[in-house]
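Ticket #4471: structure export looks truncated?
Reporter: QA, pipeline team
Priority: medium

Steps to reproduce: submit the single chain below to the structure queue and open the exported record.
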Amino acid sequence: MYNFILQILLMSSLGAVIYLIARAIPRVGDDFLGEKNMPKHSRFDNFVHNYLKIEKLDTVLNSYLEKFLRKAKVFIMRVDNIVSGYLDKLKKLNNNIQRNGEKPTIFSEAANKEEGKEENKEEGEKKPERQ
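Actual output as written to the record:
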């Protein structure tokens, strides 16, 4: 109970500090230097402002980003469809195995194939016994 009361006091005091800071922020402005003390624009600033049109660059980048995101969405949807197809196949396989009375396992097909190979190897490896 004491821990809860301390947490409430801490959060309310933090809220009060944030409120006081938020009220004091509008008092501080960007005009503290005045117009006569403001630095002149540099050549680089003038170049960027006059020759590089940021708005045009922004629209071009947004259009390329939109195209890229649309293509990525289509690719992800295709991968999702492929994965869903595999999951449906596994679901059908597991349903068939359960109907036959066998316990479903992840490697049921692989295990059946390997058992068949081992039986074939054992039959081929049998040598006639010597008397």
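Status: closed, not a bug. The export was complete when the record was re-opened. Leaving a note from the reviewer for reference: The chain has a mean pLDDT of 77.
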